[in-house]
Amino acid sequence: MRVLFQPFAASTHVNTQVPLAWALRSAGHEVCVAAQPDVVDDITRAGLTAVPVGETLDVGAKMNPDDGDEIEEIRDQSWLGVLDPGRIGLDPPPHDHLQALFAAWTPMVYQNTIPDAMIDELVDFARRWRPDLVVWDTMTFAGPVAARACGAAHARLMFGLDLVGLMREHYRGRLDRLPPELRDDPLEEWLGRALDRYGLEFTEDMVVGQWTIDPVPSSLRLPVRHPYLPVRYVPHNGRTTVPGWLREAPGRRRVCLTLGVSFREVAGGDRASVNELLEAVADLDVEVVATLNAEQLDAARGLPDNVRAVDFVPLDLLLPSCSAIIHHSGSGTFMTALAHGVPQVIVPTRMWCNGPRADLARDSGIALCCEPEELTADRLRTMVTRVLEEPSFARNAARVRAEMLGTPSPRELVPVLERLTAEYR
Predict the structure, then answer these.
(1) Overall CATH class of domain 244-405
(2) Which CATH superfamily hosts domain 2-232+408-424?
(3) What is the pLDDT of residue 353?
């Protein structure tokens, strides 16, 4: 069969899709990855066939504009303080709040990152190439539109927690109880207009997929009533080389400190203080590997003697040698730490599901968490010491790792996808 992958235009989102794409390719299926030009190099470096669609997105520039008073709210992210999907919690919020969430996110995020021209190019390619299955990122809705337009089956491949599924479950339940004339759904209206250009009508699977492929362990999944297809998370960091220093065993316990690539590239800065983080680990009897770039180091007051600073090191190679990790709650970082059974200290950024993910990790006993606004060097030092010294954190991290290892690998998922594609297309 032919399978079209459609990631969001950020390298970490592409990396999430590569293992499953290669599992299908290795099983003899034809695979293409269609995305905006920003990530074409990431796709081809992974050895996959790229299909550029639309103009360059440059999501970092959209989130961090250089000028214009009318976009100051985007620059300082003040709107996220009120309309942050990560703050809705497990209890259904009031309908007015959900209405405001979709009214804000649809034009400000979805339409802004998925322009009509990009959807049109993707639909045109899909109608020419005729995929049997479209696998799309939960942050981009061009994929299901293209699937419907060419008659393909389609499924989401999750990047992080299913906040969209949780919000839609709450929202549609409320909306269905309203009189038809009061059912104002901004996301349906926007996708409905896109579908109407091809003579198609909106259905809810345009938002949540016909089914969802989810690498998040079921014990950490949000409580959404939706058909999920579990798959083992396989870390992919792009082209990687093992540095010489990493080939040697550490002389003492090693701790990874990272604030992630996505946040500094997309959101334009760190929510946590680099100085507080470095001060917290300076007096600990550990070796710290900190993934900090030149800009972050320039802002630091100095580098402690027990800290090795590297701009980038593949976490899949580093974490097996680590006894703990301090991080921002990014999806790739979090999932790679789970895959290697590493206890975590989380200082979550305000980006999508980072907050809820930190809460779930804390509740499962694999992590300690602190909001950036409440962070002090003493508090962080205490948390790091606890996850290193209290056996329960390593024990719980090992339990979640065992759960992940018991989940079907991407290769084992291929025949299931073949069956579901035949059923749904």
Answers:
(1) alpha beta
(2) Glycogen Phosphorylase B; (3.40.50.2000)
(3) 84
